[in-house]
Amino acid sequence: MHTIARSNARRGARLALATLLALELTACASLSRKEKGAVIGAAAGGTAGAVIGHQTGSTARGAIIGAVVGGTVGAIIGHQMDQQAKELQQNIPGATVSRVGEGIAVTFASGLLYDFDSDVVKAEAAKNLRALAASLGKYRNTDLIIVGHTDATGTLAYNQGLSQRRATAAADFLTGQGVSPGRLQAVGRGETEPLSPNDTEAGRQLNRRVEIAIYANATARNP
Questions:
Q1: Is residue 125 in a domain?
Q2: Could you tell me the pTM of the whole model?
């Protein structure tokens, strides 16, 4: 009986999520430029967290929030994330590592990974990404979404394309280090999720970044 009830609950949750996402996409035509980009990112992400990301203004943070399970399983996942976050802070200098819910957000300023207007991973950035790949190899019960961001200089279409290419380049690098492609999603968000106003160079620099959300995979959340 417990197994049947749990299965029915999961089916109900999936149906509710699909309905919510359909409503979000239907409403897209009436949204602003920034809001349209958020819904497009949600569809590309393909996770509950991507829909939440539309509401919170952060695709990466939303992916982590959408993977939260709570209870005993959540406590176990949270403990693992504590350990992994500490190791990432030690092994990836220059990146910002934050614990979010039951996951980890790693933020790279784009200048750490790429030259200006480039989507080629810099040679000096390879060490950081190799350290991240090693961590993912150690903690194999996690998935991640890589989200590229730009400032508002240039057209919306160009910034969207550049951010997607940068996210894809980081994902390809990790795949080359042995990380399973099935664990990775690469999403470009362009200028639609700024951390700061784009009217100063300091603000634009904050907005040019790559965010990586690490969260427990479906098997870890449903043991």
A1: yes
A2: 0.76
Looking up residue 105, the CATH number of its domain turns out to be: 3.30.1330.60
Cβ-based neighbours of 61, under 8 Å, separated by 6 or more: 49, 53, 100, 105, 213
Segment 21-42, tens digit of pLDDT: 343 434 334 444 344 333 433 3
The boundaries of the domain holding residue 123 are 32-221
Q: What is the pLDDT of residue 62?
A: 87
* Residues forming beta bridges with residue 147, ordered by sequence position: 187, 211
Distance CA 130, CA 14 (A): 35
Indicate the average pLDDT of the chain. 80
For the stretch 147-192, pLDDT in tens is 999 999 999 999 999 999 999 999 999 999 999 999 999 999 999 9
* 69 occurs within a structural domain: yes
Q: Look at residue 50 and tell me if it is in a domain.
A: yes
d(CA 213, CA 77): 15
Continuous segment of H or E residues that includes residue 146: strand 142-149
Q: How many domains does the chain have?
A: 1
207 located within any domain: yes
- Determine the residue type at 22: A
Q: State how far Cα 3 lies from the chain centre.
A: 32
Torsions phi, psi for 122 (to 5 deg): -65, 150
